[in-house]
Amino acid sequence: MTGKRVPLRGLWRLNQRIEQWRAIRAIKEALRVAYPFILVMTLIDVVGQGVLTKSGFFFQIYHVGSWLPGLEIWRQLFQVISLVINGIVAVMVAFTTGHYLARTYRGDALAVGVMSALAFLTLNVNYDALNVPMRGNGEDIPQFMENNLGPQGIFLAIVVGLLVGWFGCHLMNWLGKWALKHPHWGQLSWTSRVAWPLVVILTITVGIGYGLSWLNDGGLNGLVYQGLSAMVTNPGHRGLMILAVTAINNGLWWLGLIGPVSLAGNSSVTSLQNLAYAVQHGSGWNAPNPITLHTLGDAYANFGGAGMTLALLLAIWIGSKQASYRRVANQTFLPNLVNLNEPTLLGLPLLYNPLLLIPFIVAPAVNIVVAWCAITWKLVPPIVYPVPRTTPGPLIAYLGTGGDWRALLLSLVCLALSVAIYLPFVRLANLAGGDEHAA
Amino acid sequence: MRRNWWRWVVGVLVVLAIFFPSTAWMHQRITQYKSNYKTPLNPTIMVPGSSASQNRFDSLITQLRQETKVAHSVLKVKVAENGQLSYTGSIRRGDNQPFIVIAFENNRDGYENINKQARWLNVAFKDLVKTYHFNHFSALGHSNGGLILSLFLEKYFAQTPRVDIDRLMTIATPYNMESNSTTEQTAILKELIAGRRQLPKKLTVYSVAGTENYSSDGTVPANSVNQGKYVFQNQVAHYTQITVTGDNTTHSDLPQNRQIVLLIRQYLLQENLPAKERAQNQADTKRRSITGETGLP
Fold it and tell me: What sections of the protein cross the membrane (chain A) (predicted)?
């Protein structure tokens, strides 16, 4: 190690220390268990969203609609599978987090896991639905806030899993001791050792959930998302603001708050103004809104999804010696190509990984600065034409500018830059070679 | 080593298989955007009939402004015999529904003159498109103005392929000139019928007739207005005939007839009329049918 690597050394030691934390270990284990499920779901989504839906990238460029027979049936089949797994991924995470934490406390892991899954569900009950009588004609309001049970809910699931895991274990232990101290109450059976904590925990979470239902319609998760979205959705034209919003957004992804800002800029007012201009004038040069979250972030800082994960995969292929990293990179390359990076985030895992947090935030920020300069200096036009959400990252700018070669070049430069930013951190992770990550 | 070589080939092939179809798709989409795109500026072009000047629609416009509470700006164009254009008024910045009145120095009646006027309309129209960059509009023609517009759409409109016409309303337009006959076709009707294939397929046409008695508005025979169906029906997207009776239905009063002003607002400007006024319009139509007015065939 040369002297230059010293700060990275410090980071490595910090990483090692954090990895000793009980909570972090539980989270990592929970994500490791959830990973295969998410992977399967996402691979199905790649086909479903990219190839079968009307707005999918491959659907459009290969004109799938005109030659695939039984398109509607295919769509429905893929939708069903995707719904089942995607719909409850957060519940799974809540279960596994609680389960692993309880195991470290030598508690009753299965019971605590189920408890935290139930607690998570009670926080996401749709209280509006309870006031409406069941009609049974297919128009009922869903009983749960289904959005919150998918990847969106992973953060809350982790928090609930940790809290319930800790509290449930201690409550059960305390009950056991209490029963020993007071033998005249009789022997405490396993059933009541589980039942009483369950009642206590559900009472608390139902109380919280019910209280929140007075505040807003989306449950606890909805509250968090509402607050964040209000903060980050409209950064306007100012470059610094866009930079800050992207950095905050990526930080939130790292925490498991997936998707407060997504590639939805196609339909914002500024994008429509740009499109109108381009249609009238033939190109995006001098478009009225050259600097927006969409023209910078979506076009140049979102390859593979938040945090330029496509560059992370390339960096892993180039520089990682860890078999588990390489395996995850191979498995999740296809989803990353169409900007679905959840399996990468959970598989490495990138979430709650202090080593990868820095490039995860820095790489998109650097790209935004580069793209910002390039657009202000009129080296490339801003993207003006809408592109599908599943367009491979490096092609977004090229297609969005109507086929400008300079934009494609800038995309490749951005990709190379991001790989260069990820590479030292990926190499640093190689040091863990002898640890549990070894193949 | 051999395996690596294969991987590179496959990788390059995949990139090419994505890149070229997506480029083709992109070009296709951009043409699509260009053809679907509608400018916010959506003028209504008004053409007066014979012997009328560019001020012919002033009272109609005043009435429209009062009723719609929108200060539609007005641009008036007068085309000289040599094709020279003189403008009065202007399109206010930010006004996306302005009125443009196009009148002609030679505003005489007759087959030859109407054909000339259609050509002059084309001169003015091209200049307007070049100046204001709109790509869709609606048109209103009173009397022979409807003939001029119809001829223009058939003979000259194809010269500006990037502009679409949304709606055309003709008021008391004598498609068969002064002829009251339902069988004989005058020269202009023959010409319009011969060229009807050139009419835009997506056009919506409203032909409004006024009648003082059962056969005419005092100047134009109802039968002549009715002949419009041979031009438009089964050619444009929608063709609707409307007959208005009651007060103010002489030929020259029609553009400022209250009923017709409501029709213009409802159909041409596509306003959402307040329920009260819509009811009034409908009540009037009903009354008409109760009094035994023969509807148009």
Answer: 33-53, 73-97, 109-127, 154-175, 195-215, 299-318, 355-377, 405-425
pLDDT averaged over every residue in chain A: 83
CB B286 within 8 A of CB B246: no
pLDDT tens readout for residues B24-72: 999 988 888 877 777 888 899 999 998 888 888 998 998 888 887 778 8
Q: Verify whether the Cβ–Cβ distance B133 to A276 is below 8 Å.
A: no
Give A310: exposed, middle or buried? Use CB within 10 Å, 0-12, 13-18, 19+. buried
Distance from CA of B21 to the nearest CA of A (A): 6
- Bridge-partner residues for B103, per DSSP? B78
**CB-based contact A385 B26, cutoff 8 Å:** yes
- Which of chain B's residues have a Cβ under 8 Å away from the Cβ of A271? none
| DSSP codes, A370-433 | HHHHHHHTTSSPPP-S---TTS-HHHHHHHHTTS-HHHHHHHHHHHHHHHHHHHHHHHHHGGGG
Same domain membership, residue A99 and residue A207: yes
Of A166, A188, A217, the last residue of a domain is A217
A213 lies in the same domain as A237: no
CB contact under 8 Å between B29 and A392, yes or no, is no
- Residues A212, A277 share a domain: no
- What chain B holds in terms of domains, given with CATH numbers, is 43-74+84-290 (3.40.50.1820)
Higher pLDDT, A251 or A144: A251
Cα dihedral B105, B107, B111, B112, rounded to 10, equals: -20
Closest in B25, B30, B37 to A60, CB measured: B25
Residues A203 and A288 in one domain: no
**Does the reported pTM lie above 0.90?**
no
Could you tell me if residue A226 is inside a domain? no
Q: Which domain holds residue A160?
A: 22-217
8 Å CB contact of A385 and B30: yes
Q: Per the CB < 8 Å rule, is A61 touching B25?
A: yes
- Dihedral, A365, A369, A372, A376 alpha carbons, nearest 10: 170
> B34–A276: do the CB atoms touch at under 8 Å?
no
Residue among A62, A392, A399 minimizing CB distance to B26: A399
- Residue A159: inside a domain, yes or no? yes
Same domain, A342 and A314: yes
| DSSP 3-state percent helix, strand, coil across chain A (nearest 5) | 75, 0, 25
* Domains in chain A, number: 2
Nearest-Cα residue of chain B relative to residue A284: B30
- Domain identity same for A329 and A408: yes
Q: pLDDT tens digits, residue range A377-418?
A: 999 999 998 888 889 999 999 999 988 999 999 999 999 999
| ipTM of model over 0.95 | no
Neighbours of A376 (CB within 10 A): 11
